[in-house]
Specification:
This protein has 157 residues and is mainly α. It has five helices and no strands.
């Protein structure tokens, strides 16, 4: 018996049902099993990494220059310029960390801590006295928060 060609419309409907089923059920299953890359997830990771990079950059601006202002007398114009650079980097990091992910929250928390540290140092420089806080511990707290943010990004959070 010879094979008889079926109705092309029936074939089209069958193909459409198979494609729809693969899209509706197969694609979510494959993503849940991490068989396919998720564009949203990689975009999110890039955004988080960008946020962290900006926060780390602000931390580096501070870390690379604050020691010259630890002992009075301090050059007021040099301090003002340095403080402005640090505050600009903090502001840029805060603007780049607009996400609600845990890693973004940690990076924002680090920037808040760094901002407080800058304010404390500013008060000390303006008064001509020593800082009222332990600057090294405050810096370690900022670094610790940035490390936590990096770990969260690596965990996809």
């Amino acid at each position: 018996m010879a094979y008889k060609q079926g109705n092309p419309l029936v074939k089209l409907v069958i193909v459409a049902v198979i494609i729809f089923g693969a899209y509706k059920f197969g694609l979510p299953w494959a993503k849940s099993k991490n068989l396919l890359p998720s564009g949203a997830a990689s975009s999110l990771e890039q955004k988080d990494a960008g946020c962290l990079a900006l926060a780390e950059s602000a931390g580096a601006v501070w870390a690379n220059g604050f020691t010259q202002f630890m002992n009075p007398p301090v050059d007021a114009s040099a301090w003002s310029s340095f403080r402005s650079d640090v505050e600009g980097a903090i502001s840029k990091a805060r603007a780049g960390c607009g996400g609600s992910e845990e890693s973004c929250r940690k990076a924002k928390e680090a920037m808040s801590e760094l901002s407080s540290l800058v304010r404390e140092m500013d008060a000390a420089v303006r008064s001509g006295g020593p800082p009222t806080i332990d600057v090294v511990r405050a810096q370690e707290r900022v670094d610790s928060l940035l490390d936590e943010a990096r770990t969260l990004i690596n965990q996809g959070k």
